[in-house]
């Protein structure tokens, strides 16, 4: 058979293979290529050298990666704090830019504190705060009935029925809302990574009901608010995320932002991210919109201030994570965690306050040294 090159399959090719009749077939002519064996050995040597070089480079890259400092680990929070390090509640604001109108807006907040309740903001430990309860994987689920306390006139879409916000809520035995007209109740289900916050909750012989609220799925990855108008706070921000947790106090540090309710938030048409809505009605240009974030000036020497131990914890947290205006209230206040964490230690807050009434815990807090964080700081594109 002949090939395309015009040679037979058994004869020499045009590639320079020595002729069978050559006296020394194993010795190539000066112009001929190296025999197959030598080429193979050279190829092996080159491949080996290349592999060695690649290994050295890879080792150097790995070593460099190990030597380079990675991102700092997130500061520890309570073991059952459900919001992850990327939520707005755990965002470090210590280096955030300051709003151009900060001084005027802080002055408005100072006025709200100074003109009411003896000039001291409230530390809510027994009512008007978040009542926290943890549901186990076997906690029975119930449907919460809609109580139309706001006279909407109909059941809002998405609230009841399959997949509804009030459907299949795992409410632990013994759960109770926070005292006060808000009747707030928070349920966390770690096994399903869900969280419910309900407002104006009641339990009657026929079951549970609530006027409003919402559910967060994949709460550990949540940015920290409820969407589509749901949630227990007026701003849609998670109320429980911004309370002082029992475990915060036991560990001696609060590594998350704190929710701040004020008397006169800006008109509801002015909302700042991360708030989703507002119930404010103050039309003054310097009024703080719900969603406004404030931090305590990092230059303040907190140890030099005459504060209660709890207020000092709050101040240190405010220098790093700040406050978020979440709601309208009858007094400027921050809330303390109540509910299940106190079942085994009902005297925890009284003991922690060491005889100081809750309305005096924040006495001496330097509200005048707050700084309003620039609007939309850290807001993701499309967020």
Oligomer: single chain
Number of strands: 16
Counted up, domains total 2
SSE order, as H and E? HHEEEEEEEEEEHEEHEEEHE
Termini distance? 74 Å
Mean pLDDT across all residues, rounded?
87
Biggest sheet details: 5 strands, mixed
Question: Biggest sheet, strands in spatial order?
Answer: 10-7-6-2-15
Which stretches are low in confidence, meaning pLDDT under 50 for 5 or more residues running? Answer: 1-35
> Which of globular, elongated, flat, extended, rod-shaped describes the shape?
globular
Number of helices: 5
Q: Which range does the strand content fall in?
A: 15-25%
Evaluate the radius of gyration: 34 Å
Category by helix and strand content: alpha/beta
Percent of residues in helical segments? 10-25%
Write the layout of secondary structure elements.
Blueprint: H1 36-67, H2 102-114, E1 122-124, E2 131-134, E3 141-142, E4 145-146, E5 169-170, E6 185-189, E7 194-199, E8 202-204, E9 207-210, E10 212-217, H3 246-251, E11 258-262, E12 293-296, H4 309-320, E13 323-328, E14 333-335, E15 338-339, H5 348-353, E16 370-372
Overview of this structure, please?
There is one protein chain. The protein is of the alpha/beta class. The protein folds into two domains: 90-129 and 243-376, no CATH class; 131-240, no CATH class. 18% of the residues lie in helices and 16% in strands. The chain contains five helices and 16 strands. The protein has helices spanning 36-67, 102-114, 246-251, 309-320, 348-353, and strands at residues 122-124, 131-134, 141-142, 145-146, 169-170, 185-189, 194-199, 202-204, 207-210, 212-217, 258-262, 293-296, 323-328, 333-335, 338-339, 370-372. The strands form five sheets. The protein has a five-stranded mixed β-sheet, with no helix packed on it. The chain has a four-stranded mixed β-sheet with strand order 11-13-12-16. It has a three-stranded mixed β-sheet with strand order 4-9-8, with no helix packed on it. A hairpin with a 2-residue loop joins strand 8 (202-204) and strand 9 (207-210).
């Amino acid at each position: 058979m002949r090939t395309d090159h015009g040679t037979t399959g058994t004869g020499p090719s045009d590639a320079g293979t020595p002729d069978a009749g050559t006296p020394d077939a194993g010795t190539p002519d000066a112009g001929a290529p190296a025999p197959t064996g030598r080429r193979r050995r050279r190829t092996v040597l080159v491949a080996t050298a290349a592999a060695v070089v690649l290994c050295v480079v890879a080792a150097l890259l790995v070593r460099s990666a190990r030597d380079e400092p990675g991102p700092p680990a997130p500061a520890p929070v309570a073991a059952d704090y459900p919001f992850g390090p990327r939520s707005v509640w755990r965002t470090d604001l210590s280096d955030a830019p300051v709003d151009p109108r900060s001084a005027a807006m802080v002055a408005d907040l100072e006025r709200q504190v100074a003109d009411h309740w003896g000039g001291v903001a409230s530390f809510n430990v027994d009512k008007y705060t978040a009542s926290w309860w943890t549901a186990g994987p076997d906690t029975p689920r119930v449907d919460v009935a809609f109580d139309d306390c706001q006279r909407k006139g109909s059941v809002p879409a998405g609230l009841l029925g399959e997949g509804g916000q009030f459907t299949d809520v795992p409410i632990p035995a013994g759960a109770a809302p926070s005292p006060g007209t808000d009747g707030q109740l928070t349920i966390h289900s770690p096994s399903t990574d869900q969280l419910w916050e309900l407002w104006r909750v009641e339990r009657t012989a026929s079951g549970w009901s609530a006027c409003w609220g919402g559910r967060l799925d994949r709460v550990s990855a949540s940015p920290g608010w409820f969407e589509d108008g749901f949630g227990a706070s007026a701003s849609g921000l998670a109320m429980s995320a911004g309370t002082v947790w029992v475990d915060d106090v036991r560990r001696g540090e609060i590594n998350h932002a704190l929710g701040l309710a004020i008397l006169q938030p800006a008109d509801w048409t002015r909302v700042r991210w991360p708030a989703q809505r507002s119930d404010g009605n103050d039309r003054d240009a310097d009024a703080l919109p719900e969603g406004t974030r404030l931090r305590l000036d990092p230059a303040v020497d907190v140890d030099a201030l005459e504060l209660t131990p709890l207020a000092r914890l709050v101040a240190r947290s405010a220098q790093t994570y700040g406050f978020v205006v979440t709601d309208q209230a009858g007094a400027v206040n921050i809330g303390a965690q109540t509910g299940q964490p106190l079942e085994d230690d009902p005297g925890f807050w009284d003991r922690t306050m060491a005889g100081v009434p809750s309305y005096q815990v924040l006495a001496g807090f330097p509200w005048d040294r707050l700084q309003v964080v620039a609007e939309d700081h850290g807001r993701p594109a499309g967020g």
